[in-house]
Design a protein that fits this description.
By secondary structure, the chain is mainly α. 40% of the residues lie in helices and 5% in strands. The chain has five helices and two strands; from the N terminus they run ααααββα.
């Protein structure tokens, strides 16, 4: 048995690898519950696969004669109607000269972009340049806090989307 800090040699690793060849995996023919599959999906989300693995997957489609699904353009899960938020962010920061529109702080490294009208209430203004403004992190946090309270009131039906009491 290995002790803490011990690094096996290449020969030992090869012997261990050969010893496992032909063995039956512990999870062969085991059915996972729906909850377990969901937890695995959450745990594995965001992981990327290597170029070699991508090539192997592509080769399988060639051998089977099937086409892989199309994941670009409107079929991509990240499709935002042709708008690129990073491009819009840069455009807003340049327009505002990297200056906070609330306190006037000018710092190119920390500026953030926020929606004047929350996109949860006004989704049609999500990519509108006139609805975006540059804020420092402090002002952004304060504005987000007040926006969340306002959004909760609107969603509960106590306020109209213009801010007046109903």
């Amino acid at each position: 048995m290995f002790t803490k800090g011990y690094i096996p040699t290449i020969e030992q690793r090869q012997k261990q690898s050969l010893a496992k060849l032909g063995g039956v995996p512990w999870n062969k023919n085991k059915n996972l519950s729906a909850e377990h599959r969901k937890n695995l999906s959450i745990a594995l989300s965001g992981r990327s696969i290597s170029d070699e693995t991508k090539q192997k997957l592509s080769d399988v489609h060639v051998v089977l004669g099937t086409k892989p699904p199309v994941y670009f353009g409107e079929n991509n899960f990240k499709w935002s109607g042709g708008h690129n938020m990073l491009y819009l962010r840069k455009k807003v920061l340049v327009r505002d000269n990297y200056t906070c529109q609330i306190c006037g702080l000018q710092d190119k490294e920390i500026m953030q972009v926020d929606h004047q009208k929350p996109k949860k209430i006004f989704p049609e203004l999500k990519f509108n340049l006139n609805n975006l403004l540059s804020l420092c992190p402090n002002c952004h946090a304060r504005k987000t806090k007040t926006d969340r309270k306002w959004i909760a009131q609107v969603l509960k039906g106590r306020l109209s989307d213009r801010g007046q009491l109903k």
